[in-house]
């Protein structure tokens, strides 16, 4: 799960922005190692290859850098899914409608990331329906293809959100739950992802791809989720900030 990439030398707006040079290094690693990379259309099919695992690539938030990433992917024979919060279209630093059309024409997948990029669990039923359908309608109007993939902003979803998304016509649901996907996840169409964040070196990237410590990492993710549920999201984030002293992010 990627968000934006930033040109080398630029200041990261947040930890989800990866320097372009790192992104290129990561894609080169995939190419040289020969690790299978699924075309976006196969992500939800759960097709396995090689040693039993394959990588799928997604990009959230419709950052303008998606255009650069797509050309880096294309030159290596890869494709990815790009999730667009449709209200962002045309804003500074974000994709325009013509960019989305061009990504689709290049063979990239386009999915919804809601309309306003809001936490979907907080919405009432009619707002939820509006977020999901409006975004789908706008994207289908641009790419002239069905839009069946949705990524939940902030990973915010529950059974009600899933049911509403299914009713709105989506078939594949991308969460921010950390992990890989097996037969169970792909059968349900509810897929986990692993964020690639700023500061991850190539060894860290290799660990994501090869998954040598998968069980430990899944256990850590579950502990974090339990802590969030027990403390409440805000208290958890305050506690984490206090415990993990990171350099303060530059102002946007
Ligand atoms: Zn997002």
Structure, explained:
There is one protein chain. With 252 residues, this protein is α/β, with parallel strands linked by helices. The chain folds into two domains: 5-212, Alpha-Beta Barrel (TIM Barrel); 214-252. 41% of the residues lie in helices and 12% in strands. The chain is built from nine helices and eight strands. The protein has helices spanning 20-33, 66-74, 97-105, 125-143, 159-167, 183-188, 202-210, 214-231, 233-243, and strands spanning 5-6, 18-19, 58-60, 81-84, 109-112, 149-151, 172-178, 190-193. The chain has a three-stranded parallel β-sheet with strand order 3-4-5. Helix 2 links the parallel strand 3 and strand 4. Helix 8 crosses helix 9. The chain starts with a strand and ends in a 9-residue tail after the last helix. Bound molecules: zinc ion (ZN). The site of zinc ion has 5 residues, from loops.
Keywords:
alpha/beta, three-stranded parallel beta sheet, TIM Barrel, binds zinc ion, 41% helix, 8 strands, globular, 252 residues
Write the layout of secondary structure elements.
Blueprint: E1 5-6, E2 18-19, H1 20-33, E3 58-60, H2 66-74, E4 81-84, H3 97-105, E5 109-112, H4 125-143, E6 149-151, H5 159-167, E7 172-178, H6 183-188, E8 190-193, H7 202-210, H8 214-231, H9 233-243
Parallel strand pairs: 1-2, 3-4, 4-5, 6-7, 7-8
The site of zinc ion has 5 residues, from loops.
Tell me roughly what share of residues is in helical segments. Answer: 40-55%
Bound molecules: zinc ion
Q: Output the CATH homologous superfamily of the largest domain.
A: Glycoside hydrolase/deacetylase
Q: Please indicate the count of domains.
A: 2
- Strands, total number: 8
User: If classified by CATH, what would the architecture of the largest domain be?
Assistant: Alpha-Beta Barrel
CATH topology grouping of the largest domain: TIM Barrel
The main β sheet shows up as: 3 strands, parallel
* Shape label: globular
Evaluate the radius of gyration: 18 Å
Q: Roughly what is the average pLDDT, rounded to an integer? A: 89
Strand order of the biggest β-sheet: 3-4-5
- The oligomeric state is single chain
Strand content: 5-15%
Measure the end-to-end span.
22 Å
- Provide the low-confidence segments as ranges: 248-252
Q: So what's the CATH class of the largest domain? A: Alpha Beta
Summing up helix and strand content along with how strands pair, one would put the structural category as: alpha/beta
């Amino acid at each position: 799960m990627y968000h934006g990439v930033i040109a080398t030398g630029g200041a990261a707006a947040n930890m989800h922005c990866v320097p372009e040079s790192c992104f290129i290094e990561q894609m080169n690693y995939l190419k040289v190692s020969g690790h299978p990379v699924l075309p976006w259309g196969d992500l939800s099919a759960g097709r396995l290859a090689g040693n039993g695992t394959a990588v799928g690539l997604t990009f959230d938030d419709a950052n303008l850098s998606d255009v650069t990433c797509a050309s880096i992917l294309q030159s290596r024979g890869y494709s990815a899914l790009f999730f667009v919060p449709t209200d962002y279209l045309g804003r500074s630093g974000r994709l325009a409608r013509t960019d989305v059309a061009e990504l689709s024409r290049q063979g990239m997948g386009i999915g919804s990331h809601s309309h306003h990029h809001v936490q979907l669990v907080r919405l009432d039923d009619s707002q939820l329906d509006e977020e999901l359908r409006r975004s789908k309608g706008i994207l289908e109007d641009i790419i002239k293809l069905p839009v069946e993939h949705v990524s939940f902003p902030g990973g915010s979803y529950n059974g009600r959100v899933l049911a509403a998304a299914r009713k709105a016509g989506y078939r594949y649901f991308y969460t921010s739950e950390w992990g890989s996907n097996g037969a169970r996840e792909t059968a349900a169409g509810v897929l986990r992802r692993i964020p690639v964040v700023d500061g991850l070196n190539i060894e860290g990237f290799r660990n994501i791809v090869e998954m040598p410590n998968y069980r430990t990492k899944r256990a850590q993710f579950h502990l974090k989720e339990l802590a969030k549920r027990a403390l409440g999201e805000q208290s958890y984030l305050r506690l984490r900030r206090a415990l993990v002293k990171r350099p303060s992010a530059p102002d946007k």
